[in-house]
């Protein structure tokens, strides 16, 4: 079982006074178990988006301390900015990252909201998965009227806060706290200063679209349906909210968007739709801007899309895919785009001082050679497997780019993409095997002073040993899954690289065999013998299949040398 990790992305209504922002962030840093990943202030919006991650209890504590500090330092009665807002801490979402469900994340959001309302006397509204009443689960609906309008709105029975007093606090305003999926805050830059044009483009692409008018589509009378509600023309992109605005800081108009589900509308699809709408209005896209962090997959999908548009293999490294995405989307137009700081998985890895895959090859070898028992054979098995599939992926890319094989680009490109995915999973398991070992060691160090403590310790050890067995078993599965790719490269790939694929086979066989030994030694510590036997049987079958496949492929290679 993965350790539960949630992300918190509070938006504070201060983007100009860096000393205030720093004091708020210091509150977050003061909580053990939390990693502050990103601080993104905006002068024009007068708003700062902060991103941090950690275990649920620590994140809730850090969020509360930050909200408390913001309530003391930010005076909403004096606040002005381009972005919609209603409070010093305007919105504070919790997002499940790993090892925790949305439902459980929503419970933590409710716990945080109640504490803010009770202890700080700030009116708090729940939203997203934390809100049970559908009519007030949407952030934009809750925030309608903004700070100035809430002095009247809060007195209406249907807008009584979920927690805290039903009276607007002039200094702190009100806050919205909830649970949601990952949201990408993304702005597209236009070569115009016209807010009117920017809004028209935003209406073209956002899910809500625009109201339908009779006659002139912009100034005509609003058309109503049978119930008297405005008829709407939907926009091109689902799960997208967008407006147009002018940013004096940059001297340009932007499409400011929230992609609430990048799997429904990916980043690159939204960018292309904005480009299409802009060009139809004589406007050019000059670049774009990411506010806060973005999931790795969104960047990889964008890089893949633009490479395929160029009729090139998308089976390149993560770094290359990310570079293509940055340049194609113009994410570095307004300032440097550092993937290590802007991609959530990389930022989390950077915050983890124990991460192995961020080390150089020499440093990793030195760490393995140290007197510490971890990283050990399990992590090395995963890394060797990653090297094996990397060699196969290299051959796939060489085959895709081989002169005279232009009609095979898609075929070998698809194989290269599969190889990159396997490599990515194995690199993750390099670190996860060490974490699993540390989990076992930590379980053995738990106290056993009385019967209850001893029982808890025994259960924790069993749970940790199960996970420590599952990880090398996953290494076996991932490494073995590369045999299809290896075989394809050996039998049909670029013949000049057949021995490279052969070395890949040797690495893969070693990875499977090494992880197999780790499974066998780890199941010896399990009390559940039925589960231990199931692990042993599954691992044995994978090992035997690996031995058979590697032998056949290697014999084919050596017969032709």
List the helices and strands and how they pair.
Blueprint: E1 5-8, E2 11-12, H1 18-29, E3 34-42, E4 47-54, H2 56-73, E5 89-98, H3 102-120, E6 124-128, H4 139-143, H5 146-153, E7 175-179, E8 184-190, H6 195-205, E9 210-211, E10 213-214, E11 221-222, E12 232-233, E13 240-247, E14 252-259, H7 267-280, E15 285-291, H8 296-309, H9 318-329, H10 339-342, H11 344-351, H12 361-368, H13 377-400, H14 409-444, H15 451-480, H16 483-492, H17 498-523, H18 529-559
Any descriptors?
single chain; 561 residues; alpha+beta; Formiminotransferase-cyclodeaminase, Chain B, domain 1; Alpha-Beta Plaits; Four Helix Bundle (Hemerythrin (Met), subunit A); 3 domains; seven-stranded mixed beta sheet; four-stranded antiparallel beta sheet; 18 helices
What does this 3D model show about the protein?
The longest helix has 36 residues, at 409-444. The strands form four sheets. Strands 1, 2, 3, 4, 5, 6 and 7 form a seven-stranded mixed sheet that branches. This protein is 52% helix and 14% strand. It folds into three domains: 5-179, Formiminotransferase-cyclodeaminase, Chain B, domain 1, CATH 3.30.990.10; 184-345, 2-Layer Sandwich (Alpha-Beta Plaits), CATH 3.30.70.670; 354-559, Four Helix Bundle (Hemerythrin (Met), subunit A) (Up-down Bundle). It has helices spanning 18-29, 56-73, 102-120, 139-143, 146-153, 195-205, 267-280, 296-309, 318-329, 339-342, 344-351, 361-368, 377-400, 409-444, 451-480, 483-492, 498-523, 529-559; strands at 5-8, 11-12, 34-42, 47-54, 89-98, 124-128, 175-179, 184-190, 210-211, 213-214, 221-222, 232-233, 240-247, 252-259, 285-291. With 561 residues, it is an alpha+beta fold. The mean pLDDT is 92. Helix 16 (483-492) runs parallel beside helix 18 and helix 17 runs antiparallel to helix 18 (529-559).
């Amino acid at each position: 079982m993965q350790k539960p990790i949630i992300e918190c992305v509070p938006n504070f209504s201060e983007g100009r006074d860096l000393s205030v922002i720093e004091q708020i962030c210091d509150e977050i840093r003061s909580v053990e178990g939390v990693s502050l990943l990103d601080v993104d202030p905006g002068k024009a919006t007068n708003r700062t988006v902060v991103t941090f991650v950690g275990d649920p209890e620590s994140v809730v504590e850090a969020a509360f301390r930050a909200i408390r500090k913001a309530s003391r330092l930010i005076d909403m009665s004096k606040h002005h900015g381009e972005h919609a807002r209603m409070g010093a801490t305007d919105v504070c979402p919790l997002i499940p990252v790993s090892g925790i469900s949305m439902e459980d994340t929503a419970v933590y959001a409710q716990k945080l909201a109640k504490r803010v309302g009770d202890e700080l006397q700030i009116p708090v509204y729940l939203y997203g998965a934390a809100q049970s009443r559908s009519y007030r689960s949407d952030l934009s609906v809750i925030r309608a009227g903004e700070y100035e309008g809430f002095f009247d709105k809060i007195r209406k029975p249907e807008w009584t806060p979920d927690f805290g007093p039903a009276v607007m606090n002039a200094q702190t305003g009100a806050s919205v706290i909830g649970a949601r999926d990952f949201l990408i805050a993304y702005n597209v830059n236009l070569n115009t200063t016209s807010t009117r044009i920017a809004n028209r483009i935003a209406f073209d692409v956002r899910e809500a679209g625009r109201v339908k008018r009779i006659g002139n589509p912009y100034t005509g009378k609003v058309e109503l349906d049978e119930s008297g509600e405005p008829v709407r023309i939907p926009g091109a992109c689902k799960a997208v909210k967008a407006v147009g605005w002018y940013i004096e800081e940059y001297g340009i108009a932007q499409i400011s968007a929230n992609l609430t589900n990048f799997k429904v509308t990916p980043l690159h699809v939204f960018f292309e739709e904005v480009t299409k709408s802009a060009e139809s209005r004589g406007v050019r896209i000059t670049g774009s801007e990411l506010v806060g962090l973005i999931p790795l997959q969104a960047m990889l999908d964008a890089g893949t899309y633009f490479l395929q548009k160029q009729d090139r293999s998308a089976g390149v490294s993560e770094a290359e895919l990310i570079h293509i995405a940055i340049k194609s989307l113009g994410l570095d137009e307004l300032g440097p785009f550092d993937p290590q700081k802007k991609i959530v998985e990389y930022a989390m890895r950077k915050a983890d001082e124990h991460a192995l895959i961020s080390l150089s090859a020499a440093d990793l070898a030195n760490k393995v050679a140290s007197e510490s028992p971890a990283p050990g054979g399990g992590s090395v098995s995963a890394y060797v497997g990653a090297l094996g599939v990397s060699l196969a992926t290299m051959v796939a890319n060489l085959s895709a780019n081989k002169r005279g094989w232009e009609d095979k680009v898609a075929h070998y490109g698809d194989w290269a993409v599969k190889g990159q995915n396997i490599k990515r999973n194995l690199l993750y398991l390099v670190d996860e095997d060490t974490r699993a070992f540390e989990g076992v060691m930590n379980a053995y160090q738990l106290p056993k002073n009385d019967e209850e403590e001893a029982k808890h310790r025994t259960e924790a050890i069993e749970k940790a040993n199960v996970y420590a067995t599952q990880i090398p078993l996953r290494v076996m599965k991932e490494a073995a899954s590369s045999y299809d790719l290896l075989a394809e490269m050996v039998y049909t790939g670029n013949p000049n690289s057949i021995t490279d694929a052969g070395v890949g086979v040797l690495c893969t066989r070693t990875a499977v065999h090494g992880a197999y030994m780790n499974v066998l030694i780890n199941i010896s510590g399990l009390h559940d013998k039925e589960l231990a036997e199931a692990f042993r049987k599954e691992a044995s079958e994978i090992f035997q299949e690996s031995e058979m496949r590697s032998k056949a492929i290697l014999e084919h290679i050596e017969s032709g040398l």
